[in-house]
Design goal:
The protein is of the alpha+beta class and 642 residues long. It has five domains: 127 residues, PAS domain (Beta-Lactamase), CATH 3.30.450.20; 104 residues, Beta-Lactamase (2-Layer Sandwich), CATH 3.30.450; 56 residues; 150 residues, Heat Shock Protein 90; 113 residues, Rossmann fold (3-Layer(aba) Sandwich). The strands form five sheets. The protein has a five-stranded mixed sheet, with helices on one face. The longest helix has 32 residues. This is histidine kinase.
């Protein structure tokens, strides 16, 4: 019968305990009797409780007199008892030497507690089971805290998912989307199943991918804890919206980066209002400047007329006045021509009158136009112009591009400054013209808007209407090229660079063959180029044309699939970040149409993971943009087009 309870466990009758176990039990009872934080007791091989410590009495609610001699299954629910769960625990302990788990257990009063349970088999020196040692710890408080935390996290998740005014989602450390809320669905138009797992750079337009903005923002968030940015972002359908983005780096307790939280607001409406306000301000400034610029020549013209009236027979005076009148009329004509050009460009009425010309002759005309202003400001002009280049362009418009850049450099460089004009062949068929100066420079905040209509840089200029650079941009684009600006900031000068696909590399200015290394012509393979960057697509198409290919071009993914259906290309070079249909899906569809077509991915992303993803979409090769001519030829040769 059970003995009295107290500081020592109540012992089960000695006849129920093997001599081996009884010999070792006495010392153990003395050690665990007063332990209160753990329920510690021993059982015989059948699971009958042999003793009971103070912790067991406190934790389970039974006195030793009430529980010693009973089966330990009393601590389990009826369902657990019916499924023989207690017996299974002993079987596992017998087989493995130890059983451990966490789960709900029952106290004497019927209440439940979350228990950490360990049952250890006790074996004799002969290896036979003599009984079990069971240790139980109450972890209810921790369990409830975990459940409360889980419920709190679930409520927070539901809250975030229901927010519709903000796109809120998680990224993994590499920038892949891990979650997606209602706001993200509304703003970016993707369903969770379409976007989770993809890299968040899919939301960025090509011009930001070219400068690696997505990865730059992640690096900034890691460095500073958060990164904020405003700019154009791309929806699923290819349309753009003006987004305010905050990216926050997330770390675990050990300070290991676990990913990023990204919050995006659609500020397109605010941006539109700001643009309208800014356009209104620029228009007002333009009208005031126009009035000033048109009024300036009137004063010397009126004074010149008065001098002629007063001294009609003075040949020296009349000759000098005539020169003044000619300059002022030329200035007014230049202003009016610029205004008319902008009007024609805006209305799409400018047509280029291309012809084959010597580059040097066109640049000479441009320098001659800008020379008076350069001399007026006492600048030096350094020239670095490639010899013997023949181009196909509108000579008047190309001269206008260069003269506007030279005049702009002269106006924004303090007297006695230095201007440099450089014109070289950048790549096959591509002309690079740059105009640099050591003038007042351009702050980073203004470099994006410097080509906007009526923009006049830092503080405006005493000369001109602020449309010269806008003309440069539009005329360069009409030639299939573009213009960029770089500056170290205020006081650090500027450099404007124009790239134009207009060089006729096989001819000199006289029309005779130019000396050059022989180029091995490739066979007449059919090549389709698809890129939403029109300049990039057109220039690449020109490369394949010059290599003897039969080419077609598309400017988005859907158009690429449509052209491929009828063109049946041997090679397809696809940009991966196209609107309407990205390069991955376009590749899959083209592969279904033409299984033998060689598909080549063109991307600014070139990690092993990026290459694996393009390969999974069916691409045969993956080239980093801008693709090198030798790499393009290597692919054509490798797949048998030579």
């Amino acid at each position: 019968m059970p003995g009295p309870s107290g500081d020592s466990p109540l012992a089960f009758p000695d006849t129920a305990i093997s001599p081996w176990l009884k010999d070792r039990k006495g010392h153990f009872d003395q050690l665990v009797a007063s332990v209160e934080d753990y329920a510690i007791f021993m059982m015989n091989p059948e699971g009958i409780i042999l003793d009971w410590n103070r912790g067991a009495e406190r934790l389970k609610g039974y006195t030793a007199a009430e529980i010693v001699g009973h089966h330990f299954s009393r601590f389990y629910s009826e369902e657990q008892q019916a499924s023989r769960y207690p017996q299974n625990e002993l079987e596992v302990a017998t087989r493995d030497g130890r059983f451990a788990e966490e789960g709900w257990r029952i106290r004497k009063d019927g209440t439940r507690f979350w228990a950490s349970v360990t049952i250890t088999a006790i074996r004799s020196e002969m290896g036979e089971i003599e009984g079990f040692l069971k240790i139980t710890r109450d972890l209810t408080e921790r369990k409830l805290a975990e459940e409360n935390l889980h419920q709190s996290e679930e409520r927070f998740r539901l809250l975030l998912e229901s927010v519709q005014d903000y796109a809120i989602f998680m990224l993994d450390p590499e920038g892949h989307v891990m979650s997606w809320n209602q706001g993200a669905r509304r703003i970016k138009q993707y369903e969770a199943g379409e976007i989770v797992g993809k890299h968040f750079s899919i939301f960025y337009p090509p011009e930001t991918l070219a400068i690696d903005l997505p990865q730059t923002l992640l690096r900034r968030a890691v460095r500073d804890g958060r990164a904020e940015d405003e700019g154009w972002r791309v929806r699923k359908d290819g349309t753009r919206f003006w987004g305010n983005v905050v990216i926050t780096a997330l770390y675990d307790p050990s300070q290991e980066l676990r990913g990023f939280a990204k919050i995006t607001r659609d500020l397109s409406e605010r941006r539109h209002i700001e643009q309208l306000q800014e356009a209104g301000k620029r228009k007002d400034t333009f009208l005031a400047t126009l009035a000033h610029e048109l009024r300036n020549p009137l004063a010397p013209l009126l004074q010149s007329v008065e001098l002629i009236v007063q001294a009609p027979g003075n040949t020296a005076v009349v000759t000098r006045v005539a020169e003044i009148v000619r300059r002022q009329v030329d200035q007014m004509a230049h202003l009016i021509d610029d205004l008319l050009d902008m009007s024609r460009i805006s209305a799409g009425k400018i047509e280029l009158k291309k012809s084959t010309q010597s580059l040097e002759s066109i640049l000479d005309a441009a320098i001659e136009t800008a020379a008076p202003l350069i001399r007026q400001h006492q600048h030096t002009l350094d020239l670095d112009i490639a010899k013997g280049l023949t181009i196909e362009a509108d000579p008047h418009r190309l001269a206008q591009i260069v003269s506007n850049l030279l005049s702009n450099a002269a106006k924004y460089t303090p007297p006695g400054g230095s201007i440099r004009l450089k014109a070289q062949q950048e790549a096959k068929g591509l002309l690079k013209i740059s105009v640099s100066d050591n003038g007042i420079g351009i702050p980073a905040s203004l470099q994006q808007s410097i080509f906007d209509l009526f923009d006049q840089g830092i503080s405006g200029s005493a000369e001109g209407l602020g449309i010269g650079l806008t003309l440069v941009k539009n005329l360069a684009e009409l030639h299939g090229g573009g213009v960029t600006v770089s500056s170290g900031g205020e006081g650090k000068g500027s450099e404007f660079t124009v790239l134009l696909p207009i060089i006729i590399a096989s001819e000199t200015a006289s029309g005779s063959p130019a000396p050059h290394a022989p180029v091995r012509r490739l066979g007449p393979a059919r090549v389709l180029v698809a890129d939403d960057g029109r300049n990039a697509a057109d220039i690449l198409c020109m490369f394949f044309d010059m290599e003897g290919m039969d080419t077609e071009v598309a400017y988005d993914g859907e158009e690429a699939v449509e052209v491929a259906a009828s063109f049946a290309p041997d090679f397809v070079f696809l940009d991966l970040g196209m609107p309407k249909l990205d390069g991955y899906e376009a590749a899959r569809r083209i592969r279904r149409l033409h299984p033998q077509t060689v598909l080549v991915a063109l991307s600014g992303w070139g990690t092993e993971e990026d290459r694996q993803r393009s390969a999974a979409a069916g691409f045969d090769a993956h080239l980093l943009k801008p693709a090198k001519p030798d790499d393009l030829r290597a692919i054509l040769n490798r797949h048998g087009s030579a």
